[in-house]
Amino acid sequence: MMTLPSKQKGVSIAELSIVMVAFFLVTFGLIEGARAIYTFNIVAHAAKQGVRYIVVRGSEAAQDDRRSADAPASDADIKSYVQGHSSILSDADVDITWTLDGDDNPLKDSGQSVQVTVSTDFFGTTVLIPSLTISSTSQGIIYY
Questions:
Q1: pTM (predicted TM-score)
Q2: How many structural domains does the chain have?
């Protein structure tokens, strides 16, 4: 068995510490990145579902006896619906942009455009990814 010179003793500990720091940086960086992507997917899905909720709850849906209880959709109903999709979105900002008439009243008739923007703050659990705001916008045409 070969013996190491006295200058080489303890070098493997130093090398291990350098490799472990790099390993943990990469590992936790991947985990934080995956969390950020997951949060974006939740936000994007919530924006799409918010538009979907609106397009079938326009002013014409209020004339249908089977639908009159939840139509036309109000901003508060939409925000509640979107924020209820995930605990991540419980404090999310939900902005609804309607087509407006001459008096700045929202038009909720068939064929009118509506846009939903959902944004939430993402807080990283490590210093690798700073806090950021993740948002997504979806738009559609009121169908009913």
A1: 0.81
A2: 1
